[in-house]
Amino acid sequence: LKIPRSGGVAISLKDGDKERAKPLAEALFEMGFSVYATPTTAAQIGGKVKLLKKISEGEPNILSEIKKGSIHLVFNTPKKGKVANTDGFRIRRACLENGIPCLTNFEAAEALVGAMRHSFGKKLHVERIDEYGSGVGY
Q1: Could you tell me if residue 3 is inside a domain?
Q2: In terms of DSSP bridges, do strands 102-103 and 34-37 run parallel, antiparallel, or are they unpaired?
Q3: Computed from CA positions of residues 109, 88, 17, 47, in that sequence, does the dihedral angle turn out positive or negative?
């Protein structure tokens, strides 16, 4: 999973998550990301969001923007059910086929954005686990 440091993030959420989308999008805006959303999610976010149509309504939509290379990360929280022809299923499938990280849990999306925010603009230093000392427990 390669997390982008710039580019576009598409947000398409189930109804129960939409009211919490604004702080997530604002953090992405602060880091310089473009944020794309479908109409009802965009209404909750406000601001500089780039509006996308639902897949069934034509283009531009999340799939067309993935194909263009505009989207580098997707937050898509699915409704219950396993129907293979829903927009959400098609979005997640396109992410998989194009190597785009796609988070399907809102809390995971919040945690990722928090980590991105913490490390934004910093060069990360990676060490072997044994360099952390005996307190790690390995």
Answers
A1: no
A2: unpaired
A3: positive
Residue 1, domain member (yes or no): no
Reported as a single tens digit per residue, the pLDDT across 36-85 is: 999 999 999 988 999 999 999 999 999 999 999 999 999 999 887 666 67
Instruction: Give the amino acid at 95.
Output: C
Neighbours of 54 (CB within 10 A): 13
For residue 130, is it within any domain? yes
Q: What is the pLDDT of residue 47?
A: 85
Residue type at 118? H
CATH code of the domain containing 19: 3.40.50.1380
Q: Which long-range contacts (CB under 8 A, 24 or more apart) does 92-95 make?
A: 94/62, 94/63, 94/66, 94/67, 95/66
